[in-house]
Design brief:
Layout: E1 2-6, H1 13-22, E2 28-30, E3 40-45, E4 61-64, H2 70-73, E5 83-85, H3 90-108, H4 111-119, E6 135-139, H5 145-155, E7 158-163, E8 172-176, H6 181-186, E9 190-193, H7 207-211, E10 218-221, H8 230-238, E11 244-247, E12 267-269, H9 279-295
The chain binds NADP nicotinamide-adenine-dinucleotide phosphate.
NADP nicotinamide-adenine-dinucleotide phosphate binds next to strand 7.
Length: 309
């Protein structure tokens, strides 16, 4: 029986080592070097080729290498009978908290403008208002969104969150469902997207949403590039509906050289680094789920195919 990692263009040696440290008897293979496809029972995937998963006749379960599972749910070669799970870890949460707080501080304290001025040797001050004057709205209050929201509230921002079901969080106002989306947006100045990519959420960061935000408004997208309608973002920036955007994810990664986002001072770009899975931290989860899949037990951090996350 073997466990296979499938993640093209990624060095997976640290992953293999981390799993072997937990159980030296595991048979671990790294695609495309697979000896016998019949022996593959569990795959751990990131951006796997979309024609592969139905070539393992005894596949029982697949795990995402990260928090998102859209690459698995959109893979037509994944048989319906195969269970799906993902990884959840404290360091993914910690990194996301750091990233979002960093982005918001840069926006709130005008650091972005100061860095741009520095390049031209300009000494100019800008007024800023304190955290308590800024309304931050988090779309998605899941494993990442909840702690991000609570940390921002602790720092002093006015924080609200939007999810499918209502939440009870410390100092975070909770909005739920499409009925409460407008109230959430009307109360938000910095909109942070931490939604999973699903049929319902694809293209959600669009002009009609931007128009409902409190001004001056910013959008931070750390979820998936496909949440954002790129041409709507540019239109919203050019017509001052939005003041700026901070993006970590893009519908095509790496962002192509000729992409219009690169040349804009009001779009901050980071190369999908907000929160990265650390092999040592999630190896035990993967081994546990491998054993659960082999023994027919329900997986930890299982994905609901109906809900798409
Ligand atoms: N940029 C990076 O480096 C990076 C790193 C990690 C993750 N991510 C992205 O972050 C996403 C979120 O991760 P997570 O672990 O926090 O996800 P999660 O635990 O699955 O939480 C998803 C949240 O979104 C809400 N939601 C889903 N569909 C919705 C809808 N139609 N309307 C309103 N709310 C909806 C859910 O509501 P309920 O609570 O009511 O179910 C839940 O609160 C991942 O899917 C991934 O794409 C990016």
């Amino acid at each position: 029986m073997s466990l296979v990692f499938i993640a093209p263009n990624r060095d997976l040696s640290a992953w293999k080592r981390a799993l072997e440290q937990i159980d030296p008897n595991l048979e671990i293979e790294i695609w495309p070097d697979i000896e016998n496809k019949n022996r593959v029972h569990f795959c751990v995937c990131w951006n796997q080729p979309k024609h592969l998963l139905d070539s393992f006749p005894n596949l029982k379960a697949v795990s995402s290498l990260g928090a998102g599972v859209d690459h698995l749910l959109t893979d037509d070669s994944l048989p319906d009978s195969v269970d799906i799970c993902r990884v959840v870890s404290p360091s993914l949460v910690q990194q996301m908290k750091e990233y979002i707080l960093g982005a918001i501080l840069n926006i709130q304290r005008n650091f972005i403008r100061c860095f741009q001025q520095k390049n031209k040797k300009i000494w100019q001050t800008h007024d800023h208002s304190s955290a308590s004057h800024w309304n931050v709205g988090i779309m998605g209050l899941g494993e990442l969104g909840r702690p991000v929201a609570e940390q921002l509230a602790q720092v002093g921002y006015q924080v609200s969150g939007w999810s499918r079901s209502k939440k009870a969080l410390t100092n975070v106002r909770s909005y739920a469902g499409s009925d409460e989306l407008d109230s959430f947006l009307n109360n938000t100045q910095i909109l942070v997207c931490l939604l999973p990519l699903t049929t319902e959420t694809e293209g959600i960061l669009a002009l009609d949403i931007f128009k409902k935000l409190k001004h001056p408004a910013w959008v931070i997208n750390v979820a998936r590039g496909e949440h954002l309608v790129n041409e709507d973002l540019i239109y919203a920036l050019d017509s001052s509906i939005l003041q700026g955007a901070w993006l970590d994810v893009f519908s095509k990664e790496p962002l192509p050289n000729q992409h219009p986002f690169w040349n804009r001072d009001n779009i901050m770009i980071t190369p999908h680094i907000a929160s990265v899975t650390e092999p040592d931290e999630v190896a035990q989860q993967i081994v546990d789920n491998y054993k659960r899949a082999l023994s027919g037990m329900p997986l930890n951090y299982a994905v609901d195919r109906e809900k798409e996350y």
